[in-house]
Amino acid sequence: MQKIVSLCKRRGFLFQSSEIYGGMNGCWDYGPLGVELKRNVKEAWWSEMVTHHDDISVLSGAASAYEMTGLDCSILMHPQVWKCSGHYDLFHDMMIDCKESKRRYRHDQVRGRWALLDDKRVFVTAICEPEEESETLMARAQKCFGLRAKERDRIGWDGDVVSLETVEDFDQVFGPDAKEPGTLTEPREFNLMFKTHMGALFDESSVAFLRPETAQGIFVNFKNVVDSSRVRIPFGIAQVGKSFRNEITPRNFTFRVREFEQMEVEFFCHPDSSQEWYRYWRDRRMQWYKDLGLSDSRLILREHSDSELSHYSTGTADIEYAFPFLPEGEYGELEGIAHRGDFDLRSHMEGKLNPASHPLEVELDEKGKPVHRGSGKDLSYRDPVTNDKYLPHVIEPSAGADRATLAFLCEAYTEDMAPDEKGEMQGRVVLKFHPRLAPIKAAVFPLVKKDGMPEAAQEIYRDMKREFPVFYDNKGAVGRRYRRMDEAGTPFCLTVDGQTLEDGTVTLRDRDTMKQTRLPVEEAKQAIREAIRC
Ligand code: GAP
Fold first, then answer.
1. Which of 106, 361, 423, 434 has the fewest CB atoms within 10 Å, i.e. the most exposed one?
2. Which of 264, 333, 334, 347 to mutate to test the pocket of ligand 1 (most atoms within 8 A of CB)?
3. Ligand 1 centroid from CA 394, angstroms
4. pTM beyond 0.85, yes or no
């Protein structure tokens, strides 16, 4: 992972946010190559879900032809949206504070081990990468008992490394950065939404939140889309955009960050066919990652157990990837596909009027009646052909653009051998992106900077640039130019030489096989077009 992180910085894929001021935790900036890569990921998603979706092909079983359309909603929304979505009351992590170090930790992320010395027994804790855990805990125990390094073997252990969640009494607990035991507070709820104020007033009446997901903008516009376009159920609405979560411990490069982009679809269907649609989207979304190059052996589709499901969901599956920063056998979530029933539309319509279907706290007025907190608008759907009126069920494939981009980067990173200028085999670093995702599709090189070759190469470069991102490079030996392009993940290099001027052919070099083929420029262009087409 360290190699990937340093390549990302060196070649301009990702930089730490506000780096010259020491950086901003949980925020990252995409550099010149990174921005193109992420745009391609989002574009591949939008094209799969919306622009290239075939509205008329009929699927098997209850699943029928369906339409897909898009939205781009504001980040700031009415505060009541977050009340009805449940985020205001329920979107929190449990956190603990350390009174000594003044640091804050996510309760489930603090891990530790009971350490023994003579008649003393203390729980030492740390927050670190799994492979560093045992050494870090040993160093912590040594410090907490006031021992020297050579006295380490006096320390005994009681049980394995476990989460702090298994410890009830914190009196004997040494916090991850504390010098004394018993300095951790009891766990308490910490809402993950970023709070701000709108307008000139700075009081409770002006409170607003940065959206923690793009989904709610789609739900509150459901009626607008139905009324303004000709969509009929079943249909889906897609949105790509920024979301914000005040993660207590952002970590693992761009995997868990505070500002990120989501790619979400809310798919509205009849309750009777919703289970079939759930299975359809779950399998289709898994295939998308494979088609763009993630290997079968590093991807899993994990169905949630009943105890993991939200109270309104009858099925949720996560698509997970074996990121290299995780221990062997562990996976990180790329996307969740959830059957949300009618929870969201009903909440925005009725508020929390129905405690049986929404076991959230219900606010009562003086007469003991539930306070109406939804929009009060009828969000049900009337089918224009059958006249059937119902509240649609929703299947939600919800992906993270940054996590998908990171997975494609990790999968692409390869070290192999390639011949250098003298024909000797040397190690090379190559990013084997799917050509569709590659930031630069092709590079054009004149073999030498004379004899009309630069002019001919520039003409080819300008012509190709009208169709896709191309890079022109005339500096250094051709072998070195190939290597620079390999590191940027460029799938093709075209070299213009003396023969080009005579017969209009070029050599086309393939990044992955390193094979070079001589062919007419037009054919080389066509080969690139086909490789990057969806
Ligand atoms: N509307 C449903 C929803 O937001 P989620 O599982 O909380 O569900 C969906 O988020 C996806 O958004 C995740 O699978 C992940 O890819 C991405 N995501 C969530 N939190 C993130 C974070 N802190 N940093 C980066 N990506 C995140």
1. 423
2. 333
3. 18
4. yes
